[in-house]
Design brief:
Elements lengths: L4 E3 L4 H9 L3 E3 L5 H6 L7 E4 L9 E4 L2 E5 L4 H6 L1 H6 L1 H8 L4 H6 L2 H7 L6 H7 L3 E4 L3 E3 H4 L14 E7 L3 E8 L6 E10 L2 E7 L6 E2 L1 H9 L3 H5 L16 H20 L1
Parallel strand pairs: 1-3, 2-3
Antiparallel strand pairs: 4-5, 5-8, 6-7, 6-8, 9-10, 10-11, 11-12
């Protein structure tokens, strides 16, 4: 490690002021602290959001669940309202990383980091959620902009995420065993506006698949999902899986998701 200062504000206003002045935000630290240990990131000042009570909690507002940015994965997984209203989201949170990651990692930290193989971004995009920040509200379709890139401005903080309650939704994750990230993860949601399919782990960032959505909106069946050709040309290829293998996983995981939702 190297010298840095750690600020622990108790109010969002104080944290916002520090972030605006250039302090690096610590929102669970499951990515940031590891990168600091490897000296891939060397901020001179950290602002820890853990002590800000207004950034935690889960409540229902109309036809949506609003989850505070500093709500930890384990709390999303165990919350009775999430289990009852969006069980697919609770299940997703319950299978992020390992117990330590789930006990420390936060919703806002994961979404702001936007790792291309992270689980939460697929739920945000798949459910058509809205990201609340210190200055505005951002629709999920506008928020994610590529690998580790979002619509957040410098110093802008996520305060909460509003998840519309779907008719039904599920997340199917094919795990990369060493990291516990998704080799391919598929979030399928039947919403009032139609079917949304969000994919993580396969490409340069979370994305929707228009072909699968069109097919499942026409006929919500396993056969319909199986009939969609998945283009591998822009998918990742690495030591863990080829692009063709990931393309096949997208198809298989979507079929499994539909089968599970049909019960």
């Amino acid at each position: 490690m190297y010298p840095f200062t750690l600020e622990r504000p108790s109010t969002l206003a104080a944290a916002n002021q520090l972030a605006a002045s250039g302090a690096k935000v610590l929102a669970g630290g499951q990515t940031l602290l590891a990168s600091m240990k490897l000296r891939l990131s060397q901020p001179g000042q950290l602002v820890d959001l853990a002590g800000i009570a207004e950034l935690t909690g889960i409540c229902r507002e109309g036809n949506a669940l609003v989850i505070g940015a500093m709500t930890r994965h384990i709390d999303v997984a165990n919350n009775a309202d999430v289990k009852a209203l969006i069980p697919g989201l609770a299940d997703l949170a319950d299978h992020i990383g390992d117990r330590q990651v789930r006990a420390m990692g936060t919703l806002g930290g994961s979404v702001a980091n936007n790792d291309p193989a992270a689980c939460y971004p697929s739920a945000v995009l798949g459910l058509g959620a809205t990201v609340h920040t210190t200055s505005r509200k951002i629709a999920a379709d506008d928020f994610f902009q590529g690998m580790f890139t979002t619509a957040l401005a410098e110093g802008e903080l996520i305060t909460a995420i509003s998840f519309p309650i779907p008719k039904r939704a599920v997340y199917m994750k094919f795990v990369q065993p060493a990291s516990r990230f998704a080799l391919v993860g598929v979030f399928v949601a039947q919403t009032d506006a139609g079917v949304r399919v969000a994919i993580t782990g396969a490409g340069q960032g979370v994305c929707r698949h228009s072909g699968l959505e069109a097919a499942l909106n026409s006929s919500f069946t396993v056969a319909s999902a199986a009939g969609v050709a998945i283009d591998a040309s822009e998918l990742n290829a690495d030591i863990h899986a080829s692009a063709a293998y990931r393309a096949n996983l997208i198809s298989v995981q979507t079929q499994r998701a539909v089968a599970k939702l049909l019960g």
